[in-house]
Design a protein that fits this description.
Elements lengths: L7 E2 L8 E6 L7 H9 L9 E5 L5 E7 L19 E6 L2 H14 L15 E4 L6 H19 L7 H15 L2 E6 L2 H4 L3 H7 L9 E7 L8 E12 L8 H4 L7 H15 L5 E11 L11 E2 L7 E2 L7 H13 L5 E6 L4 H6 L5 E3 L3 H14 L4 E2 L17 E2 L9 H10 L7 E6 L3 E2 L9 E2 L4 H13 L1
Parallel strand pairs: 1-6, 2-4, 2-5, 5-6, 9-10, 9-13, 12-16, 13-17, 14-15
Antiparallel strand pairs: 3-4, 7-8, 8-10, 11-12, 14-17, 18-19
Helix pairs in contact: 2-3, 3-8, 4-8, 6-9, 8-13, 11-13
């Protein structure tokens, strides 16, 4: 499938492009550029940018400081800082593709609700050898995830997630099924129903499933599962105002699963694919589930509710169980699951949990190669007892003695994860908490590119 990015131009159409050079020190410049750099205090420090005019006053070249070593992802900050025009990156061939992608990632702007000043676009010429279609697909997938996260809950409810899923499925010739509202009880998704039943009728909970190439039983099956809590009040265990402020992003896992699923289908990877999203609003009403309630799950395990704000793992329990019914070779789940993950690793470094050594190695290698960081955290068996309770098979809030909230949440999910193949859980933040060039405050794609690179290496390498 052909795809292009509006800001990316093929190499043969790059006449007149302004060169962007990366230098370690001002001494790498010569002539008028050296004098211009000295005048503006350019020293080649990481991120320093020098726009060098020609004799006609137009931009002749751009010089960017690379510091001690060039970092391809530093290119992400350029598009927001450059004047409009057509540019080309002067880089070694091995850096060109990742730097091109970084440039496109940095060009993302969420402008649905706010008009932006008119500005000529900053476009980039792809270097020879750059796979324009592939880079464009990846950039578009990341933009989709970010747009979904950035959109307020009033305009990104369960129905809107379903609509996006339908568009993705239809464009790829995939099937889609949706189980909504009380039909969730009839179809045995009791935990999804319990978490979402307090929402207004037009925001009813639903289980969305996309299937692609399912008749190709000669191909391995990959399942992608996403947490789609469109807004999390905390339920009856109400969050404080500060904790609720950005809970529009609590559907970030569903955005990542859908975006990655679309990317896999567009790239036509040699796999069968199932994408499962549980989309709910954790609202407050007379019908909200309560602390102390015992819920059933699709797997048959009963769950005592210790805290209604630990709802994401409940809907994922049903979704992961459904994924297991397909007997996948590999399952990846994405969820903005715990604040504890941020306490442990901060906003930029998502933890990944898996008990499969081959998968762990593949994910970490891919994360390093494409500069989409992940950090492996342990499924520490000593904390499993923190999920024990007297009146049910398990509880959704771990006992305080265990402390490690991201680890215990992953251990909870492990009880429901498919057993026919490998499984990994990504506890993502899906958010940039501080604005800087190329990283506007708001939705962020995390682990998406790493997982895609791993899938390519595992199945198409």
């Amino acid at each position: 499938m052909s795809i292009s990015h509006p800001l990316l131009v093929s190499a043969q159409d790059g006449d007149g492009a302004i060169p962007i050079r990366f230098v370690q020190a001002s001494g790498a410049l010569d002539g008028a550029a050296r004098r211009w750099g000295d005048l503006h205090g350019f020293e080649g420090k990481t991120g320093q940018l020098l726009v060098v005019p020609g004799t006609d006053g137009e931009v002749a070249q751009v010089v960017v400081g690379s510091g001690a070593a060039f970092d391809a992802m530093s290119v992400r900050g350029l598009s927001a800082r450059l004047p409009g025009g057509l540019y080309r990156l002067e880089l070694a061939a091995e850096d060109a593709e990742l730097a091109t992608l970084a440039f496109l990632l940095g060009a993302y702007v969420f402008d649905r609700y706010k008009a932006r000043p008119d500005k000529a676009p900053v476009r980039l010429v792809a270097a020879d050898g750059v796979d324009v279609a592939e880079v464009s697909r990846i950039a578009a997938a990341c933009a989709l995830a970010r747009e979904m996260v950035d959109t307020p809950a009033a305009d990104m409810g369960p129905l809107q997630i379903e609509t996006i899923a339908r568009e993705i499925a239809e464009s790829a010739g995939a099937t889609i099924t949706v189980v909504e509202g009380d039909a969730l009880l009839e179809e045995n998704y009791p935990a999804v129903h319990a978490v979402g039943r307090a929402a207004a009728p037009h925001r009813a909970p639903r289980l969305i499933e996309i299937g692609w190439k399912l008749d190709r039983t000669d191909l391995p099956l990959v399942a992608l599962v996403g947490k789609g809590v469109v807004f999390d009040t905390g339920g009856l265990d109400l969050k404080p105002a500060a904790g609720m402020r950005n809970m529009k992003k609590d559907m970030g896992g569903s955005a990542h699963a859908l975006a990655l699923g679309r990317l896999v289908m567009q790239a036509d990877l040699p796999v069968r694919l199932v994408v499962i999203v549980a989309a709910v609003e954790n609202a407050v009403s007379a019908d909200a589930f309560r602390p102390g309630d015992v819920l059933n799950s699709r797997k048959g395990l009963t769950i005592e509710i210790g805290n209604t704000d630990a709802e994401g793992r409940l809907i994922l329990a049903d979704a992961l169980t459904r994924a297991g019914e397909h007997q996948p070779d590999l399952t990846l789940d994405f969820a903005t699951l715990t604040g504890a993950a941020r306490v442990a690793l901060g906003p930029d470094l998502p933890p990944v949990y898996t008990d499969d050594e081959t998968l762990a190695a593949g994910l970490l290698a891919a994360a390093g190669a494409v500069r989409d960081p992940l950090w492996r955290m342990p499924l520490w068996p000593g904390y499993r007892a923190s999920l024990d309770t007297e009146i049910a098979d398990m509880k959704n809030d771990s006992s305080a003695w265990a402390q490690a909230g991201s680890v215990t949440a992953a251990l909870f999910l492990q009880r429901f994860a498919p057993t026919t193949g490998a499984w990994a859980h990504m506890d993502i933040f899906a958010w940039n908490p501080r604005a800087r060039p190329g990283y506007p405050e708001g939705g962020e794609a995390q682990a998406l590119r790493a997982c895609y690179a791993m899938l390519k290496a595992r199945y198409a390498g």
